């Protein structure tokens, strides 16, 4: 598992850290399903739900009775944990919202510029499901949308084999504030929200993680609805030196590996002793892991580099979903990290904290997209519109510049629109 990366060139690094899956490998399938949903609506959604999930659905939307029955199955202690998580998520995301609906400031005499903030009217939240339950993801998507002031929140999540949604996921969606919930997953859910069907309304933006097919579908439907980011198989890069605790690193790497056989769990360190200790810890801790079959197939690797700066540069090249920093001077290392979905600093900052209860968001870009995409945040649900308040004196002060540049570009009518105001 341990590999030496002393003085390795960029091309070799790219090969070492090449992702196992790519969106292009499944895009044809995503296109086929999405196009059929666009044309066939609910009938196509039902067809593919039966084909992919083995469920023959009559009603796509969760009913009030289904919601009531789900909530009744959840114990008070679990409800309390969901409430605490909601409180922390809401508090953190409220700090990201602009303090007002608009701001204006005087740029020069007679010219005030600013921005107006407008929440999206309707968004679609995709919560993975099927064989598992992900109430935490429901909270991470719905709560920020509520904080932003979105008017209507649509949620889609895959049904179980009996055609129902896991009670815990349904309860979380309800507590967080989803307005309508549909028992639909996969590409068909993304396409339904993007294009609209007889039952599922068209949304302005689709948010939420999923498998490689869901991610491909999100990329494909961007002509009809905006998306948050490509969010696929989970990833972690741990940057550590000889002060780090091997058992902590091993447990965090295993935690991400248990997500998916395509997950990525990596340690970057200048310490060969730490590398060897972590390798031993991983083998020891895997012995009793309930999801060991998945963990064994996931992409786990330990890499020894020249120094911490080299480790950070490799991390920036990978641009992973999660980064953990366990070094002597963590804040100095943090300042050098440019590409990451989220960063955890210190020995007692495991990814699991952000996954469930710290309040920061766990819906993050994967597959190297952290180089250009941000993670889920309140501003994902708010549009900004520039506002320009210009008085006669202000226009006069920039009149010569406007008309000169307009005439240089050959747009005489633009120039005349300014001259006209001073005739």
UniProtKB/TrEMBL annotation:
InterPro entries noted in UniProt: Ald_DH/histidinol_DH, Histidinol_DH_CS, Histidinol_DH_monofunct, Hstdl_DH
EC number(s) stated in the UniProt entry for this protein: 1.1.1.23
Any one of the GO BP annotations: L-histidine biosynthetic process
Residue sites binding NAD(+) per the record: 126, 188, 211
Active-site residues annotated for this sequence: 321 (proton acceptor), 322 (proton acceptor)
NCBIfam families from the UniProt entry: hisD (TIGR00069)
Protein's name according to its UniProt entry: Histidinol dehydrogenase
Gene: hisD
